[in-house]
Amino acid sequence: MKTLGKKIRLLRHQKGWSQEDVAKRLDISIPAFSKIETGITDVNLSRLEQIATLFEMNVVQLLTFNDTEEQEKYQSELETLTTKLQDRETEVISLQKKIIDLYEELRHTKVLA
């Protein structure tokens, strides 16, 4: 059950929810939900269905959810964002160079005047 708890915790983090948020949605206490995530409490089928519904999946999807698939998805997203960030950094450097060139040109015209 510990792997199920890890899957639930990962799904919760992906939604940006706190344990309190999920506990309220499941109508249970925060400690009770914490015990589900840590694997201390075994989850019965009705609670499992409730958790799966909360994360917009069915029980089979919840039980077979593989975080490596999610990691691959996020790795691809991370690579895309890294490329965009590098492009922006290049753009910023180019703009900084233009500012320096304009400053030097302005300084040069003041010296000549």
Automatic annotation (TrEMBL):
GO terms for molecular function: DNA binding. Residues 8-62 form the HTH cro/C1-type domain. InterPro entries: Cro/C1-type_HTH, Lambda_DNA-bd_dom_sf. SMART domains: HTH_XRE. Keywords: Coiled coil, DNA-binding. Pfam families: HTH_31. The keyword Coiled coil applies. CDD domains: HTH_XRE. SUPFAM superfamilies: lambda repressor-like DNA-binding domains (SSF47413). Residues 71-98 form a coiled coil. PANTHER family: DNA-BIDING PHAGE PROTEIN, TRACRIPTIONAL REGULATORY PROTEIN-RELATED-RELATED. This is Helix-turn-helix domain-containing protein.
